[in-house]
Amino acid sequence: MLSTLLLLVAAAISAADDEQLQRFREIRPGMGSTFEIILYAPDEQTAQRALDAAFARIEQLNGVFSDYDSQSEAGRLSHASPMPEAVPVSDDMFAVLDYSAQLSRATDGAFDITVGPVSRLWRRARRQRQLPAADRLQETLASVGYQHLELDADGRKARLTAPGMRLDFGGVAVGFAVDEALKVLNQLGLTRVLVNGSGDMALGDPPPGETGWRIGVAPLEPDQPPSRLLRLAHCGVSTSGDAWQYVEIDGRRYSHIVDPQTGLGLTTRSSVTVIAPDGMAADALATAVSVLSAERGLALIERTCQAACLIVRVEGEKPQTVESREWRKHEIPVPALPDSAPPVP
């Protein structure tokens, strides 16, 4: 079905001038999230077929990475642990596993897709508003560790070596999906495109007449307008924070973002925005920097090619802001917007 859509749209695309392009926008659910695509196309029929193809690719990837579907590729891998030998995996799965393993090594495990067992335990703790029992937490942590994930690049194989391992792609799969949706649209000749997976974005060419897409940086407080604006194209951008997803237990605030070392939600309020060459890198780096200290997170970004970040953390009662060297190159002034101003982008 997806290949048929690609052929239909490719046949319909012509060398339209920018003046002939129209703006189209569509939002659909996907991967336990919401995806928004904005694109410029010569006509509605072309746009709709392209949107269908891009959303079909996102749905395809849900069948690979979902941790709620036991029949997904991720679910089948997890339930097979510990594995006596490595097993073949799809190209999509291997690409994300390989990148994740590299980032895990670079962050000493601050980013770790084997965090699944404690992610599930922490989701339950948030629902019940009660910390996990100490013995249960330690038992679960024994199943976590990127060192227990073995990859064979030549054979495109993976092996989970520890009992009870569970893969959790929550910090990387949506970023990969927006990249893949962007690729589909580019293959169809549509390059002026933005794909947004609930804040994880992949950006193509800018809108006609613009030098980049205008992207608002999510503030620490929910329901507030963006306090900073970016002008971006040909990159990924992602914000990780706890403005919406947190819980208070025994008078202490915990984030939905889990520290793989402790198995508990982060306790420092933060918002981390990362610009990177693609959506997958931006998504994963934003998660990693959230877990790391501000100093180590900034160092990670500074040594990552074509990356920039803004880190906002609450120390005591006062927000503290840290920027990478490249951040200001992408920032533009924030206009005085009325309360009824449209969302960005």
Write the layout of secondary structure elements.
Layout: H1 2-12, E1 22-30, E2 33-41, H2 44-65, H3 73-79, E3 87-88, H4 91-106, H5 116-128, H6 134-141, E4 149-152, E5 157-160, H7 173-187, E6 193-197, E7 200-203, E8 213-217, E9 228-232, E10 235-241, E11 246-249, E12 252-255, E13 270-276, H8 279-291, H9 294-302, E14 308-315, E15 318-323, E16 331-332
Antiparallel strand pairs: 1-2, 2-6, 3-5, 4-5, 6-7, 7-10, 8-9, 9-16, 10-13, 11-12, 13-14, 14-15
Helix pairs in contact: 1-2, 2-7, 4-8, 7-8, 8-9
Structure description:
33% of the residues lie in helices and 25% in strands. The protein has 345 residues and is of the alpha+beta class. A hairpin with a 2-residue loop joins strand 14 (308-315) and strand 15 (318-323). Helix 1 (2-12) runs antiparallel to helix 2 (44-65), helix 2 (44-65) runs antiparallel to helix 7 (173-187) and helix 4 packs parallel to helix 8 (279-291). The protein is globular, with a radius of gyration of 20 Å. Mean pLDDT is 91; it is low at 1-15 and 338-343.
